[in-house]
Amino acid sequence: MIQSDKIECIDDEKGNENHMCFQAEALNRDALFTDETESFRFPAEPCVGDDVILIFRTAKDNVDQVCYIQEGLSGETAMEKAESDGQFDYYKHRLTAGQEKISYSFKVIKGREVCCYNRLGVSGDNPEGFCFRIVPGFSTPDWAKGAVMYQIYVDRFCNGDVTNDVAEGEYVYIGHPVSKVQDWGKYPNQMDVGYFYGGDLQGVWNKLDYLKNLGVDVIYFNPIFVSPSNHKYDCQDYDYIDPHYGLIVKDGGQPVAADAVDNRLAEKYMIRTTDKENLEASNEFFARFVKEVHKRGMRVILDGVFNHCGSFNKWLDGERIYEMSGTYEPGAYVSKDSPYRSFFKFYDEEAWPYNGSYDGWWGHATLPKLNYEDSRTLYEYILQIARKWVSPPYNVDGWRLDVAADLGHSSEYNHKFWGDFRNAVKEANPEAIVLAEHYGDPSSWLQGDQWDTVMNYDAFMEPVTWFLTGMEKHSDERNLSLFGDGESFFKSMNYHMSRMMTGSVQVAMNELSNHDHSRFMTRTNGRVGRTSTLGPEAASQGINNGIFKEAVMIQMTWPGAPTIYYGDEAGVCGWTDPDNRRTYPWGREDLELIEFHRYMTGLHHSIPALRLGSLKQLLAGRHLISYGRFLKDSICAVAVNNLPEERQIGIPVWQLGMEDGEIMSRYMLTYENGYNVGKIPYEVKDGQVLVPMPGTSSVLLVAERD
């Protein structure tokens, strides 16, 4: 353990400098540590009335005083040194959680040296907004903490039932008849939304053994409610699973003509998506599916699109599908007397019948924005939907919320809605998770009364991508100043993680790829491009498997819920939307890469520190990062060498509690052409382990403690 020293002189009683000087041990800032995990706050997520113990760690006999500082209270409270071990002292403070939120930080004093400690770690001052926080009564579901999630874009995963496939020309979408793609391996079309490959829920059911063996804990579905597009973010009916994904028990009618431009004759689609026999059968099938998933020890999260719906939606009926059926109330597009007229904002009150002047999200006519402020009926209907799917007989385990910050027409209304949404979900199913898509600072929604967590773009996907590839997450930009900058990686991670309570971080969806961004494997080629500029073949040219495995190493060892986008584990490439929505390559998988993922999810599950442990930065340099995770005797260290050359890394594992003479074993080494799971022991000497690392490699070390 290396310390920096300083010279101190002793003043006499009159304040004159005494020339008797001595070498004083400096404040060991690397030893200072606390966080919001159960190792340093017990309980980690207190309820009202709970007695709470806070713990702060320092180097042994290294500080004069540690003080607890609480926002809203004057003064500081000196903490008691409660216990020590061979390396560290542990200071404690006790409090009782009341009804109010608690924000707190710490001050450390050694002689004339003073520093503060907050969510950003050691700092010279104590900036506002970065305190540790307790929200009494707020907790995130334990099952989701560190859970391995798997995102499925259903149409592209597996076709298990050809009888529910969208027929060629079944209906018109955005001015053209839809297409049934016959070649499962075909690259997505440039205008992809109306092309269907046939993936469905039966296909997912058929692959549940594969998902379980992969180490998946949670299946997250892109939208599966009745919708005309393959992405289904343009919901047609929130009450029913799309029969094209479920069951079509009643069929009939003909597709539209090849030159059709509207859906006045889309009888086949009308029968398939509006007939209650198909709708009820699909819901019943989905209930059986979820039961089977639960039976296998996995869970299900649905995608909720509540900011907008689709022009096909039964409340609007912009395509007159429901008018044709003759069994539904008139939609707001069709008639000014529609019971759903207030669900949408119309700019021309004189344009009925067939009023196309409704407000579209970002001006898109296919995505009419829902008008909650003017319709309490709509408001309550969506809350009923929120409850319905997390309740029997469906019992799904939570919601992912699309463009959640956009809902409503004001920030105040948005926050009110999500507060009510959370209450509705938690009352119906207290263990359900509420997870939102969000770009930017999510802290105003993560105060314990709205969302549980977010899709972790800012505090995971972006910093990992910049550090390892220098690429922006759409492959639209390259930034060489961020490429390989270990300091920037940790600064970005720490800042954005500090905007969430640790319970939210532990369940955040840590993705490398998804349906909105280029595949991470493609980003490893370092090329700016899209299908429209370089073509789909270029997405798999110049890729680097070593960098991809480094990313998976970080994903499986960083705090949060590692989330695999279907096919990433099999080597699927792709530029941003729509090329990222390629089909899963059954029979053409990269089997070695799949096996690597199995090893990594297995390590993630078997090492307690990787799910719930504290996180500590150890090293940051050019193309180098190292960090540790620790929870009691479960201690591990991770290092990433993103240079193409081999180098030896000295990892200061004393900061994790490792002592000289103890052994850390290498459990995983990744490199460009493969990986190695053979255990190699490294002895701790002078507080560190020396690890040789090949070029473009990563390593996971685990303490050998009984």
Describe this structure in words.
The chain is an alpha+beta fold and 706 residues long. The protein contains 15 helices and 35 strands. 21% of the residues lie in helices and 25% in strands.
Short descriptors:
706 residues, alpha+beta, Immunoglobulin-like, TIM Barrel, 3 domains, 8-stranded parallel β-sheet, 7-stranded antiparallel β-sheet, 21% helix, globular, disordered N terminus
How far apart the termini lie comes to: 24 Å
Q: Estimate nothing, just give the exact number of structural domains.
A: 3
Mean pLDDT over all positions: 96
Number of strands: 35
Shape summary = globular
Strand order of the largest sheet: 24-23-22-21-18-13-26-25
What is the architecture of the largest domain at the second tier of CATH?
Alpha-Beta Barrel
CATH class of the largest domain: Alpha Beta
Rg, nearest Å: 28 Å
Briefly characterize the structure:
The protein is an alpha+beta fold and 706 residues long. 21% of the residues lie in helices and 25% in strands. It has 15 helices and 35 strands.
Topology diagram in text:
Layout: E1 5-11, E2 17-25, E3 41-42, E4 51-59, E5 65-70, E6 77-78, E7 80-84, E8 88-96, E9 102-110, E10 113-118, E11 121-123, E12 132-134, E13 149-152, E14 172-173, E15 176-177, E16 179-180, E17 195-196, H1 201-206, H2 208-214, E18 218-221, E19 225-226, E20 237-241, H3 267-274, H4 276-295, E21 299-304, H5 321-325, H6 376-390, E22 398-401, H7 411-428, E23 433-436, E24 453-454, H8 457-469, H9 486-497, H10 502-506, E25 509-511, H11 520-523, H12 531-534, H13 545-557, E26 561-565, H14 591-606, H15 608-612, E27 614-621, E28 624-631, E29 634-641, E30 647-651, E31 663-671, E32 674-676, E33 680-683, E34 689-693, E35 697-703
Parallel strand pairs: 13-18, 13-26, 16-17, 18-21, 21-22, 22-23, 23-24, 25-26
Antiparallel strand pairs: 1-2, 3-4, 4-8, 5-6, 5-9, 7-8, 9-10, 9-12, 10-11, 14-15, 19-20, 27-28, 28-29, 29-35, 30-34, 31-32, 31-33, 31-35
Helix pairs in contact: 6-7, 8-9, 8-13, 13-14
